[in-house]
Amino acid sequence: MNASVKDYEEIMTVITTYLKGGNKNSAAMKPAFHPNAIVNAQPAQTLFDAVDEAGETQAIGRIDILDIVKDIACARVVMEGWHGMNFVDFHHLMKTEDGWKIVSKIYTQI
User: Which of 32, 40, 55, 88 could form a disulfide with 18 if both were Cys (CB 3.0 to 4.6 A apart)?
Assistant: First the structure.
C-alpha cells in the first residue's frame, strides 16, 4: 500500500518539530521522538543534552529524501548553520498509537 498524503504531512510535521526544537531546546524537540529513541547508537537524551547546552540558534533544514512503507519511514535531513556547523541526518520513523515518531537517528557533520 502506498503512503497517504496524510502520512507525508504528519512526517513533515515531526521533522519540522525536530528542526525547530533543535534551534530552541530539548523540550521543544522531544515530542518528535519515541521514548526509546536512539541517536548515533546512544540514548536520545545525549542529543537533548547537547541541544540544551548549546542554546538557541537559527539553523535551517530540509528533507532531501522521504521514503514511507506502511508504518515505517526513512527521512534524510540536511541541517545548515547549527551553531556554525552543518549536518546530514538519517531519521527512521515508526507510526505509533501517538502518531509518527523518530525511533532512531544517525548523523554526521559535513
Answer: 32
| Angular region, 96: left φ>0, alpha ψ -120 to 50, beta rest | beta
The CA distance from 34 to 94, in Å, is: 9
Report the C-alpha gap between 71 and 41 in whole angstroms. 22
In the chain, DSSP finds a helix count (H) and a strand count (E) of: 3, 6
Q: What is the rounded average pLDDT of the residues 63-84? A: 96
Specify the DSSP class assigned to residue 25: -
Rounded distance, CA 75 to CA 17, Å? 14
| Separation of alpha carbons 107 and 110, rounded Å | 10
3-state class (DSSP) for residue 56: coil
Query: Whole-structure pTM over 0.85, yes or no?
Result: yes
